[in-house]
Known about the structure:
The complex is a heterodimer. By secondary structure, chain A is mostly helical. Chain A has helices spanning 3-21, 23-44, 58-87, 90-95, 102-123, 139-161, 167-187, 196-204, 206-219, 221-228, 233-255.
Amino acid sequence: MSHLVATAHALWLRDLKRFFRQPSRVVGALGQPVVFWAVFGAGFSRSFKVPGAEDTAYGAFLFPGILAMTLLFTAIFSTVSVIEDRREGFLQAVLAGPAPRSAIALGKTLGGATLALIQTLLLLPFAPLAGVPLLQANFPALLATMVLTALAVTALSFALAWSFHSSQGFHAVMSILLIPMWILSGAMFPVSGASEWLGWLMKLNPMTWCVTALRRSLQGDALATAASGMSSGAGMEVAVVAGFCVVAVGLAMLRTRR
Amino acid sequence: MSSGVPLLEGRGITHRYGSRVALSDVSFRAHAGEALAVIGPNGAGKTTLFRILLGLLTPESGELRMEDRPVSPRDPALRTVMGVVFQDPSLDARLTVRENLTLFASMHLLRGARARERVDELLRMLELTDRADELVQKLSGGLKRRVELARALVHRPRVLILDEPTTGVDLVALRTFWRFIDQLRQRDGLCVLVTTHRSDEAERCERVMVLNLGKVVAEGTPEALISRVGGDVIVLRTTETEPVARAVRDRLGLQATSHDGEVRVPCTHGPELIPRVLEATGGWGHVGAVTLRRPSIADAFAVLTGSSLEDEPMGGGA
């Protein structure tokens, strides 16, 4: 086994250990998306209509977006730990070790993505309660999208967090870049209902492709196409998400060279 | 001990931060079983040198050699022979002692039963066995240092880098720490490079290298460096260290450094000089007590660099 794989594996295992040692994190991670879904779902239930799919309840429309949010937020919170690791000195011991630095990017990305996946999978059984029956879901496409999105957003978040020495600085990036990526992903409102310039911005946002792929695999072509205004199909969407994943992981690995 | 091919050697290492020279043509040799102390005032270049040795920084010029072969600082072959105890904590405080050691063992490809045996062995040697399953954050400062040492040794390094390893550690803990290191030096030929602000720690090493403003200003055995001071050090206890030191310098032309309520005057023929020193400082008015002692590395350091070795490290210095 190479030093790269060994170090990435050790860091991945460490993230899992630390996560399950803090029950509050497990509960919080599950509670937050549920609260978000309940509040937003109830708040918009009477005023919201998807153009072209008017009979879809807002709670059902929002569900794939909540899955994406869970992936993104878990990724953010687990990569903040790289800033703590730097501040608390743990990182220097890993950097002085035998593995190339990219092992840290790989280990932290795998760790964060695994936690994000675990939490999203815990959320999935609640789908029928939100009006999203699971029996007709395209599970291969759904799982592929979840795995690739988890890796992509964790790697992106890691790449952004890498050079920060305090989590305050990273919070700014989070609110300027990462959270807007989720808001403008078609998670909260459909691309098809947005103004033209915003619609374009949303189509350029890789998160939009993640949310559309999640929605297509969970809720079928009609709603996904109506909401996103894209008739790209599952294959194309998963491919774009895979591309996003490759670029983000590459970026994270490159960032550690400095 | 210092004959033959050095285990680790640096040749002409130079590094700049912008226009500021941090290291200028620094060379050193460290042999198996030997301990080399690197001492210098804050900003002398110790941290830069160690960052280069640890592969955290690539020097502008110069080379590292391992057993007479050139080696890049990031070369896994070099990284696996090196262990390091950092000045600051480097453990994961939310994992247990054993989990920390196992984690770093696995980064060095030690897994399964071999990792367990090595971790158990280190826990036994450092008397940590009964604390093995406690979270690191619950341990006292002295115990944490011992776990840091165990972490640095988990992959059986041949070179151990110690960056101010005993800052803030009491004398008993310091002796325990070094008794263990000396054992490894004798038994396994462990080569030790250490930066320190403690005279007693530097004097434990076979050789001492003094850095000042990025240059090596002296290198040799502790005895050879101490002999540069002369035979004696007159120590004046006073509340007014600066005026007293200035008076000694100006009126007698001797070196005098002040530190922590003391003025130290390295000299030869100390006993004969005491009356003249007291006269120069205006008699007993300012001076509470006078003692005469043998010089230490700290005195040699003061003579060579004009700074005090025992001043607390500021941390994050170059």
